Amino acid sequence: MRVFSGIQPTGMAHLGNYLGALKNWVNLQQEEHECFYSIANQHAITLPQDRENLRKSTLQTAAILFSIGLNPEKSTIFVQSDVPAHTQFAWILSCLSPIGEMERMIQFKEKSKKTRHMANLGLLSYPVLQAADILLYKANLVPVGKDQEQHLELTRLLAKKFNNFYKPIFVEPKTLHTKTIKVVGLDGTAKMSKSAKNHISIVENEKTLWEKLSTAVTDPARIKKTDKGNPQICNIYSLHKLFSTQQDLEWVVAGCSNAKIGCIECKKKLFKNINELLKPIREKYVEWMKNPEKIKISLKNGAQKANKIAQQTLDEIYDIVGFKY
Ligand code: AMP
Ligand code: TRP
Question: Which of 125, 178, 300, 303 could pair with 82 in a Cys bridge, judged by C-beta atoms 3.0 to 4.6 Å apart?
Answer without folding.
Answer: 303
